[in-house]
Design goal:
mainly alpha; Rhopdopsin 7-helix transmembrane proteins; two-stranded antiparallel ribbon; 11 helices; cell membrane
């Protein structure tokens, strides 16, 4: 192994560890807090967490094995199963992010009608579509033997070693990425940009009220006035930063891999093998980023994590103080 392959191997190990721990933590928060379970977005987050966890334990370790050994991990049948899972889980993850963006759009643009427009049965219907959509592409690719070990990505993924079905594979690849990556990206942009538009409108209304209040309060201290103006600026930037994070992480993690897969369809264009692994690592890194982007940085999840930690610390402190109290009782002299 050269230096680049060693670095990439270490990167895959780090992604596996971070993805496993963060997604397990999201799952623990979901099971611990009944309020999270009652919310409709919790179902979408649960589905996304499930896909990320399964991808972490099934595909990432085998990519690491393929990168280190430079050979296919397991037999052809085993690799087809892993490739089926990789196609299904990656597609399901993208569509789950699109579903979360639709949920946020309805909540912000139609706040009074949100509970009637997005109920648990509506969320179940959306999740059913994401599963059917993902299953259809994965099943077609596997049944046509377009899933196998790909040396460029050191992974069991979409691959077509037969020249006789090259045209059909090209059509399927373009169609697949158009209705997974491109469709999800368009939904993310449309919904989150509308959310941003509404958020900026509300910020302007709040800014007008704040400025009118500052004008009326003639005797207000300059430091208080300055803090109010700084809070206005932070409020405007907060919504933009969140929307940029949602769309930016999606593009940064998935776009290089999808573009590489499209470029790969042209045999005359050479692709650096190290770049193939890097693009694959970027897609895996999305599984490690999602828990923070969609869950753990939110106030409700942070509070739940704090409650869990405090409960564990309280229990450990009680266990530690128990024997000490027993020893103190035993050390009390008795009068005979």
């Amino acid at each position: 192994m050269d230096t680049a392959e060693v670095i990439l191997s270490v990167l895959v190990v780090v992604i596996i560890i971070v993805s496993l721990l963060s997604n397990v933590l999201v799952l623990i928060c979901f099971l611990y807090n009944p309020e999270i379970r009652k919310q409709v977005p919790g179902l979408f987050n649960l589905n996304l967490t499930f896909c990320n966890l399964l991808l972490t334990v099934s595909n990432m370790p085998l990519t690491l094995v393929g990168l280190v050994s430079k050979a296919q991990p397991g037999g052809d049948g085993f690799c087809q199963i892993v490739g089926f899972l990789e196609t299904f889980l990656s597609t399901n993850s993208m569509l789950s992010m699109a579903a979360l963006s639709i949920d946020r759009w309805i909540a912000v643009v139609f706040p009074l009608r949100y509970h009637s427009k997005m109920r648990h049965k509506d969320a179940a219907f959306v999740l059913g579509y994401t599963w059917a959509h993902s299953m259809s592409f994965s099943t077609v690719a596997t049944s046509l033997s377009w899933v196998g070990y790909h040396r460029l990505y050191a992974s069991c993924t979409l691959s077509n070693p037969r020249a006789s079905s090259r045209t059909q594979f090209v059509i399927f690849t373009v169609f697949f990425h158009s209705f997974t990556f491109l469709l999800s990206f368009i939904v993310l942009c449309v919904t989150y940009l509308k959310v941003l538009k509404v958020a900026r409108f509300h910020c302007k209304r709040i800014d007008v009220i704040t400025m009118q209040t500052l004008v009326l309060l003639v005797d207000i201290h300059p430091s208080v006035r300055q803090r109010c103006l700084e809070e206005q600026k932070r409020r405007r930037q907060r919504a933009t930063r969140k929307i940029s994070t949602f769309i930016g992480t999606f593009m940064l993690c998935f776009a290089p891999y999808v573009i590489t897969r499209i470029v790969e369809l042209f045999p005359a264009v050479p692709i650096n093998p190290h770049w193939g692994i890097v693009s694959k690592c970027l897609t895996y890194s999305k599984a490690a980023c999602d828990p923070f982007v969609y869950s753990l940085l939110r106030h409700q999840y942070r509070k739940t994590c704090t409650d869990i930690i405090n409960r564990l610390l309280k229990r450990s402190s009680l266990n530690a103080s128990g024997p000490r109290q027993v020893n103190q009782v035993n050390s009390i002299p008795t009068v005979e």
